């Protein structure tokens, strides 16, 4: 049985009126959702910005100390200006800063930091005993001359546990590369990661190394 034209017209009018009535509601709902979404994104962006700012502050505190550590164990830069006792005290200071800052980073932060410090120091000795330096005194005593304090000999571990400077460099560049990536740097020039060429097993998955130091320049920047 055919539907009367008047009934069909009434149905269309009802549909139009329904759509017209619902449109403002749908628009308002979509606007409300979009506004909440934008505010959520803004809050997340603000929080991430604050985290990056705090990471930068942690870098400013830790990086100079780690560079000082690297210089001492690699015999570069200002290594002759630090005493063995200074380096033992430096570890305590670095540990405090690192563990306070650790929650701002992912789990790789403490892993890389521990890899670096474990190469430089022998820990977990007798109760109350300070960490010991995993390096040799052979070149350090002549560098200090008559200023060498015999008590400093106790700051060093046995010769068999001494670590090669190149091993320290690998750990140091890995830590510095991690920190650079954590602060948002995706491209880092190797000159910023220490003297000499980048170690062959340096992890470049986090950042892209822009350039290598020529071998002749790396050789010129070794021990002082």
Describe this structure in words.
By secondary structure, the protein is mainly alpha-helical. The protein is built from six helices and four strands, in the order αααββααββα. Strands 1-2 form a two-stranded antiparallel ribbon. The relative contact order is 0.10. Mean pLDDT is 79; it is low at 215-224.
Give a short summary of the structure.
The protein has six helices and four strands; from the N terminus they run αααββααββα. The chain has 224 residues and is mostly helical.
Biggest sheet architecture: 2 strands, antiparallel
- Which whole number gives the mean pLDDT? 79
Distance between the termini: 105 Å
- Mass-distribution shape: rod-shaped
Gyration radius from CA atoms, angstroms: 31 Å
What percentage of amino acids are in beta strands?
under 5%
The ordered H/E elements are: HHHEEHHEEH
Task: List strands and helices in order, with pairings.
Blueprint lengths: L4 H70 L9 H18 L6 H13 E2 L9 E2 L6 H5 L20 H18 L4 E2 L19 E2 L5 H6 L4
Parallel strand pairs: 3-4
Antiparallel strand pairs: 1-2
Supply database-style keywords:
mainly alpha; two-stranded antiparallel ribbon; 4 strands
């Amino acid at each position: 049985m055919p539907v009367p034209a008047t009934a069909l017209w009434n149905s269309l009018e009802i549909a139009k009126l329904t759509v017209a009535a619902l449109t403002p509601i749908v628009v308002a709902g979509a606007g409300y959702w979009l506004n909440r979404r934008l505010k959520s994104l803004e809050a997340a962006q603000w929080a991430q910005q604050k985290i990056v700012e705090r990471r930068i502050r942690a870098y400013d505190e830790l990086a100079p100390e780690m560079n000082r550590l690297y210089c001492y164990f690699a015999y570069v830069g200002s290594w002759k200006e630090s005493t063995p006792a200074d380096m033992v005290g430096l570890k305590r200071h670095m540990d405090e800063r690192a563990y306070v800052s650790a929650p701002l980073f992912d789990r790789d932060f403490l892993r890389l930091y521990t890899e670096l410090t474990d190469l430089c120091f022998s820990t977990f000795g007798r109760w109350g005993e300070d960490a010991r330096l995993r390096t040799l005194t052979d070149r350090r005593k002549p560098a200090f001359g008559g200023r060498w304090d015999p008590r400093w000999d106790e700051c060093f571990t046995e010769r068999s546990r001494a670590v090669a400077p190149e091993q320290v460099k690998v750990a140091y560049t890995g830590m510095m590369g991690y920190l650079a990536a954590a602060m948002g740097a995706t491209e880092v020039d190797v000159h910023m990661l220490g003297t000499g060429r980048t170690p062959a097993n340096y992890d470049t998955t986090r950042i892209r190394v822009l350039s290598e130091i020529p071998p002749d320049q790396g050789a010129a920047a070794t021990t002082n």
